[in-house]
Amino acid sequence: MLRRRLFLQGKLSLPFFAGWFGQGRAATKPRRDFFQELKVRPFINAAEPFTALSGSLIPAEVIEAWQYAAGRSVRLDEVHDAVGERIASLIGCEAAMVTAGAASGLTLGTAACLTGLDRDKVHRLPDTTGMKTEVIIQKSHRYGYDHAVRNCGIRYVEVESTEELEHAIGPKTAMLHFFNTNEPVGRIKLPEFARLGKRHGIPVLNDIAADVPPLANFSRSLQLGCDLVTVSGGKGLRGLQSCGLLYGKADLVKAARLNGPPNSDAIGRGQKVNKEEMLAMMVTLELYFRRDHDADWREWERRVNVVRKAVSTVSGVSSEMFVPEIHYRCPHVRVRWDEGKLGLTVAGVIQKLREGDPSIEMRPNKEDGLEIGVWMLETGEVDIVARRVTEVLRKG
Question: Are 346 and 365 in contact (CB under 8 A)?
Answer without folding.
Answer: yes
